[in-house]
Amino acid sequence: MPAEESLAELLARVALRDRRAFERLYRATCDRLFSVSLRILRNESRADEVLQEAYVSIWHNAPKYDAAAGTPMTWMINIVRNRSIDLLRARKSELASTTEIDDKALNVAADSAGEPQRLLDDSLVKAKIAECMRALAAAQRQALALAYYRGMVHTDIASALNAPLGTAKGWVRRGLEQLKSCLEGAGVTGL
Amino acid sequence: MNYLLPERLDRLAREYALGTLAGPARRRFERVLRSSAAASTAVNAWQGRLSVLDLSTAPVQPRESTWRGIERQLFATPDRVASPSVRSGGVLPALLGLLSGRGLVGAVVGALLCVVVLRMQPGIVGLEPQVDALPQSYVGVLLDPAGKAALVASSRRQGRLLTVKILQPLNVPAGHVAQLWALPKDGAAPFPVGVIAAQGSSRLALPDTSEKLFFNVSRLAVSFEKAPPNAGDAPAGAYALIGNCVKVW
After folding, report:
1. Which CATH class is domain B137-248?
2. What's the whole-number average pLDDT of chain A?
3. Contact at 8 Å (CB) between B221 and B241?
């Protein structure tokens, strides 16, 4: 990943309407942001659509970026996540009522974006909080992974993990509380 | 509901950041986010915590056409100097090469002629409008203190551009800007939309679709500010213009 300082510099120049800086920002970050969208939407075409919308939004909103609110990468990831989640929810009923199987896209997504549980475990190791997060039951960690990496809501998680809705909500809440506690214990503030 | 009670705010912020806050509750909280610095701070904190979950994300390179699509949306034409796709060759540069000099002039004249003919005779290629109705839009008409219409603002329901037409020039005090505000109908704090020109027409890029921004907005207003406000700021003084914002559909 490029140094956050250079991303911050690029973003500052984008805020001044510098097209060259905008392209460099895109080249430096598009692969990570595309991966974020792909793992939620699991469809290359829709992930691509979201990625384009997200960078248009980044261009328009760069002057409003506040370094005190988070790193440039965190800011951009959340633009992509929110748009991906919006599109996922908008298409949810359509997906539920059709039998479209986009095998190719799903295979690509599965290979390149990874599975939620593995992504979570690997990330926790890299953040040096894997031990601390083992205080959670496997189902609690899985619930957190499905929410974050797949954009699932509580009802989806309950269904996927074959648990009552209230239990699934509790797993997610407990997962977040433990994450916060572990990060504070490790002195980690984010990306 | 008071969204800003600390415990409730933290719960909503973490569910929003994670993505489990869904449906109308998510939309309502997004409106709170636009007007509350405390809500933004709470969400930022959770987004920061959750960002560690991206540490193992494996990069996936998008297609080169993605960048060209972004350029088209933002700038209408690709930046030929900056774009590696153009520098490195391909179909597009080859076509641009063929269209150099007189060829390019001829192509531009031909394209303009096509546009003129199609605008005058759209039936030639079956481009007549399918319906005469105005597309689904949000429209605001703002009045001055004398009750005279002074500004019209409009944006398509799913659009991200707001067109503002000034019907009578604004007397913006020196050192100030004319700031457009959206006033939610539930009495929540106004949120800034953008700075508008004192006369003529201007187009504001919106951070989201009109539907999401203006769904709960009943009025628009203009105030004169010393600097463009940030999210969470309130208007510094009285409104110079104010009027209803309506859904046209």
Report:
1. mainly beta
2. 85
3. yes
Residues 11-70 on A with a CB inside 8 Å of B are: 19-20, 23, 26-27, 30-32, 34-36, 38-39, 47-48, 51-52, 55-57, 59-61, 64, 69-70
**Does the global pTM surpass 0.90?**
no
CATH hierarchy code of domain A1-113: 1.10.1740.10
Residue B49 at interface with chain A, using a CB cutoff of 8 Å: yes
DSSP letter assigned to residue B187: S
Beta bridge partners, B205, equal: B161
Could you tell me which residue, B121 or A86, shows the higher pLDDT? A86
CATH no. of A115-191: 1.10.10.10
CB count, 10 Å around CB of A168?
27
| Cβ neighbours of residue B122 closer than 8 Å, sequence gap 6 or more | B128, B129
Q: Find where tokens 């703002």 sit.
A: B142
- Amino acid in position A175: G
Q: Are B183 and B220 in contact (CB under 8 A)?
A: yes
Least confident of A7-16, A107-116, B70-79, B224-233: A107-116
Whether A21 has a pLDDT exceeding 80, the answer reads yes
| B122 or A164, higher pLDDT | A164
Spatial distance between the Cα atoms of B94 and B197, rounded to a whole number of angstroms: 41
- Interface probe, candidates B7, B15, B49, B191, chain A, greatest A C-beta count within 10 A: B49
Write down the ipTM of this complex: 0.86
Delimit the CATH 1.10.10.10 region(s) of chain A.
Answer: 115-191
Q: Which one of A56, A122, A151 has the shortest CB-CB distance to B19?
A: A151
Name the pairing type of β-strands B191-196 and B149-156. Answer: unpaired
For residue range A23-73, what is the model confidence (pLDDT) as tens digits? 999 999 999 999 999 999 999 999 999 999 999 999 999 998 988 889 999
Chosen for mutation from A58, A153, A154 (greatest number of chain B CBs closer than 10 Å) is A153
Cα–Cα nearest to B51, from A158, A107, A33: A33
B143, β-bridge pairs: B149, B242
pLDDT tens digit sequence for A160-188? 999 999 999 999 999 999 999 999 988 87
**H/E element, B149:** strand B149-156
* Residue contact B52–A127, C-beta within 8 A: yes
